[in-house]
Structures are given as structure tokens and as C-alpha cells.
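Contributing new records

If you add data, match the layout below exactly. Sequence lines come first and carry their own label; structure lines follow with theirs. Keep one chain per record. Anything else will be rejected by the validation script.
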Amino acid sequence: MRDKYHGGDQVHTANGSGMEIDQIGRSLVCTPNKNLVLNNVLYVPQASKNLVSVHKLAHDNDAFFEFHSPYFLIKDQTTKQVLLRGRCEGGLYPLKSFSYKQAHGVTKLSASR
């Protein structure tokens, strides 16, 4: 679910270049035991990777992460049940279920110019 983004903020890369935010919305990460909610998802057409705020994903879903060199786990905070297991690829821990480019859980955006 997405709505047109009407703010003037941008998402900035490590080299300082800005990318326009086109839409904002909500998304789900489907797992066998529980769907994980991603609130305030920013759709950034120029982004080449999907980015997720681990803190925000954990906080919004009462979950926690375990990072190991070959894989990661997302677990339910209360039951400790594994909700999702993923593999490390090139030093990153990707969530494979996203179908479009977005930055997830960006909480501080640049000042409008």
C-alpha cells in the first residue's frame, strides 16, 4: 500500500548524492509463522538496493535479529520462535521478498532545500 509522497526530503547515499522519494506506504515481509510489518516505507525509484532499518523492523514487530557470518535470523521476542532465516550474500543480509526498490524505516530525512 503506497501513497504519493508530497514532502521535499530526499534519501542520501554514502557519497552524499540525494535521491527523490516518490511514494510512502506500508509493506509486509511474509514469513511462515507471522507477517512482519514495515511502516513508513519510502519508495525511491533511483535506489539500487532495498534498505531496512533493523531497529524499526524489530521494534514494530516485537522481534529481534541474530547475525551470524553465513546467515541471519529474525525471531519473535516473546516466543523466541524463528520467523525468518536468510543467508549472507557479499557481506549483506538481504530480505528476498521485496519486489521493488525502496528504503525501509528511514527516520531522519534531509532538510528541504
